[in-house]
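Researcher: Let's do a round of design. I'm pasting the structure tokens now; please hold your answer until I've finished.
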């Protein structure tokens, strides 16, 4: 599979989990992102959302680690992604689950 990891502009926190290699990236980041392409952007900006939409249009599956309300507020919820690609598959992963008092964290 061709995997493209999309991160916030400053990069994901797992980039700096120690030990850190000479290139400045943490060993966890290097392990879980081996052979993936990556891009950093601001998904709340018009330009960032447009880039995400273009990536969605050429993708089969989107895996998001944000709560549904956050995706919706960013214009990256399932109905909006379907405008870019009607048969896109969206799956969300949450440390707090999809129900319960902490589900929107």
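Researcher: That's everything. Go ahead.
Model: Designed sequence:
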């Amino acid at each position: 599979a061709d995997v493209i990891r999309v991160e916030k502009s400053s990069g994901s926190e797992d980039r700096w989990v120690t030990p850190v290699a000479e290139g400045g990236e943490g060993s966890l980041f290097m392990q879980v992102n081996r052979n993936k392409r990556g891009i950093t952007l601001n998904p709340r900006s018009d330009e960032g959302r447009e880039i995400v939409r273009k990536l969605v249009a050429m993708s089969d599956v989107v895996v998001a680690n944000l709560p549904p309300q956050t995706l919706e507020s960013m214009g990256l919820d399932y109905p909006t992604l379907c405008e870019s690609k009607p048969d896109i598959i969206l799956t969300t992963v949450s440390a707090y689950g999809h129900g319960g008092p902490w589900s929107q964290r």
